[in-house]
Amino acid sequence: MLPQDFIAKKKYGGAHTREEIQWFINGYVSGEIPDYQVSAWLMAVWFNGMTYQETADLTYVMMHSGELVDLSDIEGIKVDKHSSGGVGDKTTFVVGPILAALGYKVAKMSGRGLGHTGGTLDKLESIPGLNVYLPMEQFKDIVRRVGIAVVGQTANLVPADGKLYALRDVTATVDSIPLIASSIMSKKLAVGTDLVSLDVKVGKGAFMKTLDDARELAKTMVELGKALGRDTIAHLTNMDQPLGVAVGNSIEVAEAIDTLKGHGPEDFTALCVGLAASTMHHLGHASSYEEAEGKVWEVIRSGKALEIFGAMIEAQGGDRKVIEDPWAVMKRAENVYEYKADRDGYIAGVDAYKVGMAVVDLGGGRVKKSDPIDHSVGIYVDGKIGDKVVKGDVLMRIHYTDEKKLEDALKRLEGVYEIVDTPVQKPPVIYEHIE
What we know:
By secondary structure, this protein is an alpha/beta fold. The protein has helices at 3-11, 18-30, 35-48, 52-63, 92-101, 120-124, 136-146, 159-170, 177-189, 211-227, 250-260, 266-282, 289-301, 304-315, 326-329, 352-362, 403-412; strands at 78-83, 105-110, 148-152, 195-202, 231-238, 246-248, 335-340, 345-350, 378-381, 388-389, 394-400, 417-420, 430-434. It folds into 3 domains: 3-49, Transferase, Pyrimidine Nucleoside Phosphorylase, Chain A, domain 3, CATH 1.20.970; 78-153 and 188-326, Nucleoside phosphorylase/phosphoribosyltransferase catalytic domain (Pyrimidine Nucleoside Phosphorylase, Chain A, domain 2, 3-Layer(aba) Sandwich), CATH 3.40.1030; 330-420, Pyrimidine nucleoside phosphorylase-like, C-terminal domain (Aldehyde Oxidoreductase, domain 3, Alpha-Beta Complex), CATH 3.90.1170. It is built from 17 helices and 13 strands. Strands 3-2-1-4-5-13 form a 6-stranded mixed sheet, with helices on both faces. Helix 5 links the parallel strand 1 (78-83) and strand 2 (105-110). Helix 5 (92-101) packs across helix 12 (266-282).
């Protein structure tokens, strides 16, 4: 088969076999099939979609395009928690230690931030000395001893996805459910955990803007996981406004630590407890969701989850004193601008996308992969949907280091709040579970 025949088959709505997909993807990874032909195929997929079998075959081929991470020599139930990305999303730093405190082994490979969503690795690197790139045996040893490790994805893990994603990003083919699902699940399935727990964000600050689209993506990923031999569950969660209060690198780590101490923001705490309890209940280690929720609160109130987070930080080279006093270890920009309400009323909306991009404007995120990160800047979003406000109330506290970057961020934040005259109900945090 010639590449143009493969492309034409999808252009005219045909379905590929696994052998055809394997030939095409392997040819791309090896350099035999050029970018321009793969770009044409991606656009054909964007327009015509893929059958479920094609999506499963693409996931399998991508998963096996590089090395697989074998965790079979680690005792216990291995869990991987994945979020589809959002603004203020630091759930890994809370849910991971909670699950480890409950006796599970959390082996997490994460990525960096690009665009309006922050990266787990960038946030962790707010802690001086912490190393997110560890040899595989050291990664596994920390999971074995501590119960959790969070590291960067190796270059040899699913290289097909790395090449395809870069191409999708510049050819306007990112927003295709078969391509999104195969991208996420190929990386999750390449790491040998027993359970993949997915947090699929929905709303203005998420990639999936509607519940219907998010539900379709979540169901596709759950089915893919099960078809390829991996227990998989998903949760649809709210990203219409920033999650929690802190949006930025160091300030999100500090908020996660506060949450592990039992006094984090209401919405963020509810999400973390809900995700952990749902995972425990699904695994059959609690007779009801309520019992699982009670056990989650036990490891928070006892300080066990916090201690495990500290142990993970120390094992990866960071200063565990950060869990006692974050600002004795990390840096936070000292300049503060107070963003105030311009009228009385009730908050009906907080544009999460604008907040995320404002943090990028401040220097706390990146537009290109090569952009440097200022870990000290960030925004505290004090005004949340449902709050009653009076003109002059502080809605956000912006920590910045550069006046010009602050100006850019303030321009970005024009219209970020929707304030109305009538009371507004607080939105749900978790919409539904899919198993």
